[in-house]
Amino acid sequence: MIQAAISGFVSGGAYATLGLSIVLVYRMMGVLNFAQAAIGAFGAYVAFVLFEGGMPYTLAVPLGIAAAAAIGALLGLVMSTWFSEAGAEVCSTVSVAALITLLAAGFRIFGDSPRSVPDFFSGASFMLFGVVITATGAVAIGGAVILAFAIGLLLRRTRIGILLRALSERPTTAELLGIRARRLTLIVWAFAGAVSALAILIIAPTRTSAFLGLSMLIVPALAAALIGLLRSLEAAVLGGLGMGMLEGVATSIPDLAPYRQVLPFLVIATMLLWTERAEVWDARR
Amino acid sequence: MSDLQLDEVTITRGGLPVCRDIRLHAPRGEVTVLLGPNGAGKTTLLDAISGVIATATGKITLDGRDILGLRREQRARLGLAHVEQGRSIFPGLSVEENILAGARSSDAVHRVMALFPQLIARLHTQAGLLSGGEQQMLVIGRALAGKPSVLLVDEMSLGLAPIVVRNVMPIFRQLAHQGVGILLVEQYAALALEVGDRAYVLNRGEIVFEGDCAELRGKVDVLRGAYLAATPAGHK
């Protein structure tokens, strides 16, 4: 059972990293970005295509990450230009439109066939307390934890963090103080896009890497973000890791394995019910 | 000359003109008071000057430069600060972080604390936990942290105890002495006219009076007709 749970480290790390991107964009920009995984998948696919074209993977990966950052920044530009005064519902709807656009564009450009994806660590693993841990899994989890810590530190301790938090609380007031809202917005969107691409690149070697399938990793990522109530970076990381480990355990149980894709939906439904519990119980009374 | 100048400014909201042909001059080193009844267009006018509302025509110049086509943060960076109505603190940030968010220099926190020593003990407190008066001091201090040349202040007294208003109002006189131009929208006409140099009265979107504050204090009919505000308790 423990080994099965540990086998979910790679997925968990990727869900956690994607969940971090979603929480970051939601907290700073007020947008629940349903296109976050698709942006990452697009960047990852750029890397795969370049690699297939003969480019060294170590060069293709940064270019793919840069492509995802550019797409993220483009979506941020659209949001800040036309939807800066709109509510979270409208902005999130725009992100659904962006998801559909990216899926269509990805299908058109990359096709729907899975790609062969190189694994940076090519199956390397080590033993810890009698349990086998893959190098990719350790990097995925370590990366997600370090990233959450670094983002938290940046938001709390740096000037750019103060400006971002100010912008997220009262955008108009922040602009009236001379805070360069559009520049910060683009930085956040680009950063989230780059991080998403990194997450997809980590998880891609472990599963059938079709563009649609990778884009749909938004579902477990949203579940992770919801565990953090779309606010807590740390809880989103724990949620992502938990999702991955749960998935690992489910995979090892033959009766449960076919239904493991349903788990994120159950988590999302449970979290939504939990957040609304007071109102439901009050209504009952 | 460094100042704020409005020429034939017309502002529309929802396609309808809210303010028409406004001419207004708020020089540096002076407190300019803008009075008027509720719905006269005072807040709309300040919003148009700072760029919160983009639908204005005419000419708005700051230190001789036309700012009408500029974005909010560009106007702010040119030296225009706007203290919005309703104590617009960043509630999740500490007092110090609120000031740093508006700061243009490393001594900003020190300067604000010198102006509002009451905030020193609250420096690391979350701004949302401050009293109304402290929050108002913070938003004024935060605006000053950007070293503005012109400060727009919208209904500072709204929801504040009169004694707090009386304590804060002289700060504007002090700032004017330091060379800042103040455009003050205030419901307590008597107090505002006491600290102000020149006054405008806005009614139904048009300037109906322009002159010295001392002159307006003597025109009871103008004040009564266009602006009926309560005087804070204890004010003589």
**How would a crystallographer describe the biggest sheet of chain B?**
6 strands, mixed
Helix and strand string of chain A, N-terminal first? HHHHHEEHHHHHHHHH
How many domain regions of chain A? 1
Identify the quaternary structure here. Answer: heterodimer
Number of strands of chain B: 10
Portion of residues in helices of chain B? 25-40%
How large is the share of residues in beta strands of chain A?
Answer: under 5%
**H/I helix tally of chain B:** 9
Low-confidence stretches of chain A: none
What is the CATH architecture descriptor of chain A? Orthogonal Bundle
| Tally of DSSP helical segments of chain A | 14
Based on Cα principal axes, name the global outline of chain B. Answer: globular
Radius of gyration of chain B: 17 Å
Structural class of chain B: alpha/beta
Write down the overall geometry of chain A. globular
Beta-strand content of chain B? 25-35%
Order of helices and strands of chain B: EEEHEEHEHHHEHEHEEHH
The order of strands across the largest sheet of chain A is 1-2
The termini of chain A sit apart by 42 Å
- The main sheet of chain B orders its strands as 6-7-8-3-9-10
Architecture blueprint of SSEs:
The complex is a heterodimer of chains A (285) and B (236).
Chain A: H1 2-6, H2 9-29, H3 36-52, H4 57-82, H5 88-110, E1 125-128, E2 131-134, H6 135-157, H7 159-169, H8 171-176, H9 181-203, H10 211-215, H11 218-227, H12 233-252, H13 263-275, H14 277-284
Antiparallel strand pairs in A: 1-2
Helix pairs in contact in A: 2-6, 2-9, 2-11, 2-12, 3-4, 3-5, 3-9, 4-9, 6-7, 6-12, 11-12, 11-13
Chain B: E1 3-13, E2 16-27, E3 31-35, H1 42-50, E4 56-62, E5 65-66, H2 72-77, E6 80-83, H3 95-102, H4 108-115, H5 132-144, E7 150-154, H6 162-177, E8 181-185, H7 189-195, E9 198-203, E10 206-212, H8 213-218, H9 220-226
Parallel strand pairs in B: 3-8, 3-9, 6-7, 7-8
Antiparallel strand pairs in B: 1-2, 1-4, 4-5, 9-10
Helix pairs in contact in B: 3-5, 4-5
